[in-house]
Amino acid sequence: MRIMGISGLPGSGKNLVSELAIKKGARIVSMGDIIREEAEKRGESTKDTAKNLRKEHGDYIVAELTIKKVKKLIEDGIEQSIIIEGIRSPYEVNMFKDNFDDFIILSIFANPKIRFERLLKRNRSDDSTDYNEFKKRDEMELNFGIGTVISLSDKIIVNESDLKSYEKEIEEFLDEYKI
Predict the structure, then answer these.
(1) What's the pLDDT score for residue 47?
(2) What is the H or E stretch that residue 7 is in?
(3) Distance of alpha carbon 76 from the chain centroid
(4) Which DSSP letter does residue 158 get?
(5) What's the CA dihedral at 18, 112, 63, 2 to 10 degrees?
(6) What predicted TM-score, i.e. pTM, was given to this entire model?
(7) Taking the mean position of all CA atoms in its chain, how far away is CA 123?
(8) Spans in the chain with pLDDT lower than 50
(9) How far is Cα 16 from Cα 78, in angstroms, rounded to an integer?
(10) Staple 2 to which of 25, 81, 151, 176, CB 3.0 to 4.6 Å?
(11) Residue 118 burial (CB < 10 Å; 0-12/13-18/19+)?
(12) How far apart are CA 67 and CA 149, in angstroms?
């Protein structure tokens, strides 16, 4: 079993990594899903919930909840690799490395124009259809420290070419790291 994290700005292509890893038997724990679930409970936007959770419980509450969830999976006897999706700060990386041996980070990069076009196509409820709002979300993510996470990753995949090439790079990574 291997535990790793995926990082990248919205629309970079993190979900495809997860989808291909699931086909290989991996289990996904999404930090974004934890925020979305909490936002639904609170009746808030995900943006407000992300800010409010951190204000109420500290900057790293989402990582703490994620670690708790992963440890529960391990206690329950899961033998699959676990991928933590959506890591945004270097401190979160350190928390995961402190809690899980051989923890690695894969970051996915794509330029803003490409990522915005992808968000428009996927049409998820927390994605903006306004480019200025999209840029503000990027700024918020960068303020959390995602740029540092990307720069310190064990592996970075640039996802700006065709889908087939991107899938091939992901498959090679998953095989190399035994996910």
Answers:
(1) 83
(2) strand 3-7
(3) 23
(4) E
(5) 30
(6) 0.85
(7) 18
(8) none
(9) 22
(10) 81
(11) middle
(12) 18
Helical (H) or strand (E) element with 110: none
- Tokens 């350190």 identify what position? 94
The whole-angstrom separation of Cα 118 and Cα 44 is 24
Residue type, 113: K
Contact 137, 47 (CB under 8 A): yes
pLDDT confidence of residue 177 = 92
User: Is 2:178 a contact under the CB 8 Å cutoff?
Assistant: yes
Q: What are 129's two structure tokens?
A: 């259809």
Report the residue count for the chain.
Answer: 179
**Torsion sign (Cα): 103, 38, 59, 57:** negative
Instruction: Kindly provide the residue ranges of all beta strands, DSSP E only, lying in 14-123, ordered along the sequence.
Output: 27-30, 82-85, 104-109
| pLDDT value, residue 109 | 96
